[in-house]
Amino acid sequence: MTTSMQTFKPQEFLKTWTGAIKNALSTNMDLSRMLSIITNEFRLNPKLMECTQTSVGNCILQACQVGLRPGALLGQFYLIPYRNNKKNVIECQFILGYKGMIELAMRGDGVKQIEAHAVYAGDMFEYEYGMNAFLKHVPTKENHGELITCWALATLRSDIKQFHVIDKEGIDRAKSFSKTPNVWDLHYEAMARKTAVRRLFNYLPINPDLQLILALDDAADRGEQVAMMGAIYEGGVETIETEEETPQEAPKSNVDQLKEVLKTTTK
């Protein structure tokens, strides 16, 4: 059975979803600013208007709930259309950017600062793990060459520093496992930095908002994000929208429920 492709206009989406977006917004976000960002995303990426409205809406609600702003220009939270061949529809999923990772990590009690950088062939770069750990990176001002490494460094509230270095082979391995290679092709350096930050999180305290977003972001790499969001949020993600469908409330994040979902989806 073939499902006909549906499209929607940005004004139709905003009419349907503004109430839910308003309810989902964190205290540090302005509704008019968020609606402007969303409208601009539709302009920059018209393919989003071919996605199911519910999949786009749920991604935006998730961004609102954790206080991140979607959009490639900001680099916190990417909205990515992809075709679901089983359902013959285009659905939207979000990909967390390294700037969004850092923003969420620094909201917890344990992390004071995080930085992530790309190392190019022309740079001076040295590091060592162990009892005498150190990291030194002096970027060249010209003739950068190719990207060869990325590193991320966190300063904890205790002023203890922790860093992680990943070479290009490890970065490209992460790309090869991803179900969203188009994001890598468009934003390779940003995704490489994200990979370094993501590995660094193995050694850092993780707050509940970041735990939730990382689990959903990892699910996107496995092609399982839409299904997981449907399991976490009441009502799930529908594949086809109707004009009568109007979300009344934003779904609520539930980290405990996420843990139960992860138990069943990772067996």
What are the low-pLDDT stretches, counting only 5+ consecutive residues below 50?
Answer: 235-248, 250-255
- Count of β-strands: 7
Shape: globular
Please write the string of helix (H) and strand (E) elements: HHHEEHEEEEEHHHHHH
Q: What count of helical segments does DSSP give? A: 10
Instruction: Using the CA coordinates, give the radius of gyration.
Output: 19 Å
Main sheet overview: 3 strands, antiparallel
Strand content: 15-25%
What is the fold's blueprint, element by element?
Blueprint: H1 10-24, H2 31-44, H3 53-65, E1 77-84, E2 89-96, H4 98-105, E3 111-120, E4 124-128, E5 134-138, E6 147-156, E7 161-167, H5 168-177, H6 181-186, H7 188-200, H8 208-221, H9 225-232, H10 255-265
Antiparallel strand pairs: 1-2, 3-6, 4-5, 6-7
Describe the structure.
- With 267 residues, the chain is α+β, with helices and mostly antiparallel strands.
- The protein has helices spanning 10-24, 31-44, 53-65, 98-105, 168-177, 181-186, 188-200, 208-221, 225-232, 255-265, and strands spanning 77-84, 89-96, 111-120, 124-128, 134-138, 147-156, 161-167.
- A hairpin with a 5-residue loop joins strand 4 (124-128) and strand 5.
- Helix 1 runs antiparallel to helix 2 and helix 8 runs antiparallel to helix 9 (225-232).
